[in-house]
Design a protein that fits this description.
heterodimer; A: 115 residues; mainly beta; seven-stranded mixed sheet; four-stranded antiparallel sheet; 11 strands; 56% strand; globular; B: 112 residues; six-stranded mixed sheet; five-stranded antiparallel sheet; 58% strand
Chain lengths: 115, 112
């Protein structure tokens, strides 16, 4: 299957700082990537859809100024959590949709802990 | 109408037994139904998937049964092993879009 690489795997930061998470499709071009948030023992909550070369589409209730998404190339999307606060602590997962392929492949996730 | 209801929430099975997880949906516009396996601290991994024009798909020990009229689909894990212990999510893709709707997850524990 296609490989989606996510980095970093975990990050600890101080409240008020910004954190950037990278999501790369390694062996295919991903015109569309997705960012999810997952709380412990819960399902995946779609935050936003990232489209290469255009603005991301955010789900209802997700602050676009808080969670900045950039999809500058067909293989890279980034999520920046700006001015992070403890309530932003969560497991963030990206996924990518290959061209001509309806299968969704996930990255390994990033555990964010905001102190 | 966009919901996918998954049950049970948790499941304990003896080694060698059959694990069965069920999902139900309401939206007839869904056109693709995958199952994902997730280990703690990892992203979900695609396990097996089915389209609505097929009633059953088998890959190794994993089988999806699909009942279009009942709007239900299920995952069967035959000869369950301790290494299968993980959280399983069903999902449904909204036709004509890239959007997946995920079930609430089932935590499976297979006893040695």
């Amino acid at each position: 299957g296609a490989v989606v690489s996510q980095h970093p795997s975990w990050v600890i930061c101080k409240s008020g700082t910004s954190v950037k998470i990278e999501c790369r499709s390694l062996d295919f071009q991903a015109t569309t990537m997705f960012w999810y948030r997952q709380f412990p023992k819960q399902s995946l909550m779609l935050m936003a859809t990232s489209n290469e070369g255009s603005k991301a589409t955010y789900e209802q209730g997700v602050e676009k100024d808080k969670f900045l998404i950039n999809h500058a190339s067909l293989t890279l999307s980034t999520l920046t959590v700006t001015s992070a606060h403890p309530e932003d602590s969560s497991f963030y997962i990206c996924s990518a949709w290959g061209q001509g392929n309806e299968k969704l492949f996930f990255g390994s996730g990033t555990q964010l802990s905001v102190l | 109408q966009q919901q996918v209801k998954q049950s049970p929430q948790s499941l304990i099975v003896q080694k060698g037994g059959i694990s069965i997880i069920n999902c139900a949906y309401e939206n007839t516009a869904f056109d693709y139904f995958p199952w994902y396996q997730q280990f703690p601290g990892k992203g979900p991994a695609l396990l097996i998937a089915i389209r609505p024009d097929v009633s059953e798909k088998k890959e190794g020990r994993f089988t999806i049964s699909f009942n279009k009229s009942a709007k239900q689909f299920s995952l069967h894990i035959m000869d369950s092993q301790p290494g299968d212990s993980a959280t399983y999510f069903c999902a449904s893709k909204v036709g004509g879009t890239y959007k997946y709707i995920f079930g609430t997850g089932t935590r499976l524990k297979v006893l040695a």
